[in-house]
Automatic annotation (TrEMBL):
Residue intervals of the Methyltransferase FkbM domain: 53-215
Range of residues in the leader sequence: none
Species name: Flavobacterium zhoui
InterPro entries to which the protein is assigned, alphabetical: FkbM_Methyltransferase, FkbM_mtfrase, SAM-dependent_MTases_sf
Entry keyword set: Methyltransferase, Transferase
An annotated Gene Ontology molecular function: methyltransferase activity
Keyword RNA-binding in annotation: no
NCBIfam families: fkbM_fam
Protein name (Swiss-Prot/TrEMBL): FkbM family methyltransferase
Length: 251
């Protein structure tokens, strides 16, 4: 049985570190978006890989926002900025379905919150893969689009987007409008089954990404769900040609 611990997770290497360092240099001043930041764990990992980057962590839940702020201080990640909203395809307010719960086979005194990592703008549909998950609360949260965020912050290009939004991936991407073409790399979740109502499936995400000139260069999908890493072929022409055979590992 794996025993989970927040410090151990945050201090471990990101599974995407090797791929990112093939595309960017450690001292590059990157613009990184962590959408669905939860406690800021991934943002802190990226801040260690690229200490001169500007990282924006989007998280709409107040409880998680406090954890992000505490972790920024604890791990001295001063290049991270908390953006306390959800990212969607429309600006305004939206219902947000809050997850909670704890697996029966895990000790209750762990320094790890299993339940706070599955909240979504979409209502849950299928929790059979994690029967301990509970969705018994929903609130209204503020939403913004990437298009408006880029304009308001005068961001012309984004180097990397880490997205963990539990089925709302296409809402986020479609909200970027034409500016999606100015994103260089994207790491996001995909699923072959509908865990949330009206969730786009892996084939829908792949079709959208292909249409917008993104190519898969890493895929960690097992059992019908997982993550994919995409590069924008307009920025990485040489990688788009050679990646499948030589550069990245495709599962």
């Amino acid at each position: 049985m794996t025993i989970y611990n927040r410090d151990n997770y945050i201090l471990a290497e990101s599974p995407l570190k090797k791929e990112l360092l093939k595309l960017f240099k450690k001292n590059d001043k990157l613009t990184i978006l962590d959408i669905g930041g939860c406690e800021g764990e991934e943002s802190i990992r990226y801040s260690r890989i690229f200490p001169f980057s500007s990282i924006y962590t989007f998280e709409p839940l107040l409880k998680n926002q406090k954890l992000v702020e505490e972790n920024i201080i604890k791990y001295k990640a001063g290049n991270i900025e908390l953006v306390p909203v959800a990212v969607s395809d429309e600006e305004g307010f939206s219902q947000f379905y809050i997850s909670s719960g704890h697996p029966e086979d895990q000790p209750i005194d762990l320094d790890w919150d299993f339940g706070n990592k599955s909240s979504s703008l979409l209502p849950p549909k299928n929790t059979s893969l994690a029967s301990w998950l509970i969705f018994d609360k929903k609130i209204n949260v503020q939403t913004i689009t990437l298009d408006s965020f880029f304009r308001q912050n005068k961001i012309n290009e984004v180097d990397f987007v880490h997205m963990d939004v539990q089925g709302a991936e296409l809402k986020v991407l479609m909200g970027a409008k034409d500016a999606v073409k100015n994103i260089k790399t994207i790491w996001l979740e995909v699923a072959d089954i509908e865990l949330y109502k009206n969730q786009p499936l892996r084939v829908d995400v792949e079709n959208y990404m292909k249409k917008n000139d993104f190519q898969i260069v890493k895929s960690d999908v097992e059992g019908g769900f997982g993550d994919q890493f995409y590069i924008n072929k307009n920025y990485f022409k040489i990688f788009s040609f050679f990646s499948r055979m030589f550069f990245f590992k495709i599962k």
